[in-house]
What we know:
Elements: H1 16-23, E1 27-35, E2 38-44, E3 51-58, E4 69-76, H2 78-87, H3 93-97, E5 104-110, E6 117-122
Antiparallel strand pairs: 1-2, 2-3, 3-4, 4-5, 5-6
Bound molecules: zinc ion.
Amino acid sequence: MQTREFGCDRCWPTDAHAAWDARGGLTRLEELVDESHFHVMILACTLCGQRYVSIFTEMIDWEGGEDPQYWTLLPITEAEAESLKRQGASLGEMSLNALGRARRCLRRDHPKAEPPRVFWGSGILVGPHD
Ligand SMILES: [Zn+2]
């Protein structure tokens, strides 16, 4: 059996699209930032208990139609989850972008007037948002 650093086959499969589907089965543990264009949550797998930080940003360009939307899902350690909880709503982009720099993360980009893309990335880069 292959040893893995984060998650289990259910919550963190090798295929990015399967991982995006699996995200829908994660339990919401904590809501950290809940603004309409910036949403940060801690999610957990019910099977293995792995914690994830989920970040959603939406860019408003005032030109009407659908605004570009970006999601990042990054597996985090218990200690990182605790630290995020302590920061709560004062959590800034700096501390998010400092998390798991070389760690694999799941990204979903939905640019304006283009189909969404789901792919593997690394670390966190909080996109521009209002
Ligand atoms: Zn799991």
